[in-house]
Amino acid sequence: METLKKVLITGGNGFLAKTLFQQLSDKYTLIVCDRESLDLNDVENVERYIHKQKFDVVIHSATYDAAPRDTKNNPEKVLESNLRMFFNLARCRHHFGKMLYFGSGAEFGRENWSENMDESWYDRCVPTDQYGYSKYLMTHYAMQTDNVFNLRLFGVFGEFDNWRYRFISNICAHAVLGLPIHVHQNSLMDFLYADDLAQIVSWFIDNQPAHQVYNVCRGKAYEFIDLAERVQAMANVNVDLVVNHSDINKRYSGNNARLLQELPDFHFTSLDDSLRNMLMWYQNNKDILDANQLHF
């Protein structure tokens, strides 16, 4: 009987870790850690743990984000916290097979965002915000290794996402609760369904990539108004759509040509199917939704 690969997933309480566990637990031996079970800021504890466990793959999804309105995270500690967690793992890279972590289009500098950005956009500027700068420095390191890989994300959505403020989850929550869907400011963004991300991650677990950095995205951008109209049309009840500003103020999407060279036959879930899945999931889990906690 073939032994399943042993995989560590950090950030166990987060949206991505929950999705990966749900989608991949039958393919690998998954060990999911949150901050209570493994403090990634404790360098000695991380080193002992990694040396002892002998993982085939480490998937680093933990992040320190101070952007959400209701977070208690300190904006002044974003850079240090993200880098400490990352490097406390990466410095042990000779004691596991490979490390996959999730970068961000924020590496390109938010003020320089555009459509269809490929991997060459990296280092055209140095990000000015702490989150983007932390991801920028991680990429600089990964590019000098042979077993640390940046799966750079743009927009990702899925059933375990935070419906309070994340756009697609938020508009689905509004629809399920029968509340008007709000688009404060129209934008054009690339959104990847988290279930598709999990299957892409599975390929990276099982194969040896040719590059250290990949844009992991659908490769197609959608307007917020378009997404809201689709959800409105799919809703089980009639809900209004309120748009405050219809002009596009942000264009943010990635070029996934390098990714598709590795996975030429990959089939992305259609946008409509993924939105239907989201609505159905929230309808079946309506008890977790609270209109008073919606940010917009």
UniProtKB/TrEMBL annotation:
Domain NAD-dependent epimerase/dehydratase positions: 7-217
PANTHER family the UniProt entry points to: DTDP-D-GLUCOSE 4,6-DEHYDRATASE-RELATED
Q: Which InterPro entries does this UniProt record tie to the protein?
A: Epimerase_deHydtase, NAD(P)-bd_dom_sf
One Pfam family of this protein, by short name? Epimerase
Matching Gene3D superfamilies: NAD(P)-binding Rossmann-like Domain
Question: Which family, according to UniProt?
Answer: Belongs to the NAD(P)-dependent epimerase/dehydratase family.
The domain of life for this entry's organism is Bacteria
**Protein name per Swiss-Prot or TrEMBL:** NAD-dependent epimerase/dehydratase
Pathway recorded for this protein: Bacterial outer membrane biogenesis; LPS O-antigen biosynthesis
The organism encoding this protein is Methylophaga aminisulfidivorans MP
